[in-house]
Amino acid sequence: MKILVTGGAGFIGSHTVVELDKAGFEPVIIDNLYNSNLGVLDGIKQITGKDFPFYEMDCNDSEKVRELFAKEKFDGVIHFAAYKAVGESVEKPLNYYENNLISLMVLLRAMTEFNVPNFVFSSSCTVYGQPDAIPVTEQTPRKPANSPYGNTKAIGEDIIRDYIYAKPGVKAISLRYFNPIGAHESALIGELPNGVPSNLVPYITQTAAGLRKSLTVFGSDYDTPDGTCIRDFIHVVDLAKAHVKALELLESESGPDYYDVFNVGTGEGYTVLQLINTFEQVNGVKLNYSIGPRREGDVEKIYAQSDKVNNVMKWRAEKTMAEALRDAWKWQLKITAQ
Ligand code: WQD
User: Fold this and answer.
1) What is the SS3 assignment for 155?
2) Preceding omega of 135 cis (within 30 degrees of 0)
3) pLDDT tens readout for residues 214-266
């Protein structure tokens, strides 16, 4: 099966291309390289030994997208390509709504026009906002997201749900990611944040590598065991494998209007300080950090109840947070040495 991977040169996209290949799929990558670079394709080639078709293009360009769908007969699409910086989305909301939502609609229209039946959408646990109860299930009510970025994920899910309801010949799954961390064990691909990382783990690895002076832990007065926020940190390779499982589930689903949503998390929550301590232990490094004020918009605690993805999609996280932090550090050392 030939699968279009939009944003396939990105962090989760590149790891998913590797897992698609391992599972016998034929990935085709499109990426506008806004938040990635061609070196990622070299990393993928070193891991897989293959040069997958790559098109540098923007999913918002309807003409280019239709030309591609006319040329390559796809069996499915995994849609990663989107702006994803929470803070930036607050400063530039229209850029986020335009880029993330128009690209989605361009792809959905092309899928119907060219009879491409299977769609996997990259959503996020951010749609839950601060849940009233944890762990969250797929029935946990969504709340207004804390950022335009989070809203584009919630609205994106609604666009897909309503589109599928009209029976356009497309089946779809939305995967609500928790916190992806780590890198491929080969250290040939990993996270490449643009500029100053806003996410925790790349900031930690850059601090440990001496690229940043110190990590600030945003708040230690939350209602948690050590006062720092709780998150469900999932190894990016496990997350990538969930996309393969989603495609396989879609393939097995014959209903013309099949649509479902899955939480993709480990089902365990750890605090920021627990992650920092694990990072120091597993890598034998001392991290320079201090406690600072809370970050505006942060959710206090959230982690997944993962029964549905375990039982229905037959996927479960296999790697531990310690393995992810080991892989993240190995990757940081590799890119710092370059
Ligand atoms: C995790 C925890 C911070 C940085 C966001 C998006 C989500 C997804 C992942 C895109 C929080 C703390 C962080 C730092 C810190 N985005 N932290 N010091 O906010 O849970 O999720 O990124 O795919 O959709 O919402 O991730 O890594 O920014 O923060 O103390 O320098 O680490 O306060 O508690 P977050 P994060």
Assistant:
1) helix
2) yes
3) 999 999 999 999 999 999 999 999 999 999 999 999 999 878 899 999 999 99
Nearest-atom index, ligand 1, CA of 275: 32
Ranges of each domain in the chain: 2-185+233-265+305-319
- pLDDT value at 133 more than 90: yes
Determine contact, residues 228/307, Cβ cutoff 8 Å.
Answer: no
What residues have CB less than 8 Å from 32, skipping those under 6 apart? 56, 57, 58, 59, 81
Which amino acid does the sequence have at 302? I
Q: Please tell me whether residue 67 adopts helix, strand or coil conformation.
A: helix
Nearest-Å Rg of the Cα atoms of the chain is 19
The rounded Å distance from CA 217 to ligand 1 centre is 11
Decide whether any atom of ligand 1 lies within 6 Å of the 220 Cβ.
no
Residues tagged active-site: 149
Is 329 within 8 Å of 279 (Cβ atoms)? yes
Residue from 80, 200, 296 to probe ligand 1 pocket by mutation (most atoms less than 8 Å from CB): 200
Question: Distance between CA atoms of 290 and 27, rounded to whole angstroms?
Answer: 43
Tokens of 186: 């080969």
The class level of CATH for 2-185+233-265+305-319 reads alpha beta
What is the pTM (predicted TM-score) of this model?
Answer: 0.97
Question: How many residues in total does the chain contain?
Answer: 338
